[in-house]
Automatic annotation (TrEMBL):
Name of the protein in question: Uncharacterized protein
Ranges that cross the membrane: 115-139
Keyword terms, alphabetized: Membrane, Transmembrane, Transmembrane helix
Organism: Myroides marinus
Amino acid sequence: MLTKEELQKIIDQFDEEELKKLAIFGIYQYGGGSDESFVRANKEGLELFALQLLKSAKDTEAILLDEEKSIITFNYDEDWVDENSDTFVQYVEPIVDKQQLKSMSEYKSTFADKLIPYGCGLVLIILVLSVVVGFVTILDWLF
């Protein structure tokens, strides 16, 4: 885990103004949901977005202690952010705790779950019998 000073050293290595001149960055959706997204960017755009994240990481502790401010805003309306992007990251909301994943409970089959195969089998038997009876009836009409 990097300290504020170490993060600042990394941030200082970037020439933000020069990156902004060359950068293009966008987040796009290729399917129906937000889980079907991708980033389209050049190297400078990726570096600039990473720089924004590094600045957010550096400011996280201060924001968590601040009672007035609870988010770190991004400058998403700048020229380096692709205006045709589907998703615009507007801010970071720092949190203290790691996400607690819910344990997967084992599925217990119900009585209805156990009846489904028998019901499908019964429908299949009725269908086969109907086809046989219909076929025999057609043969009786013809002969």
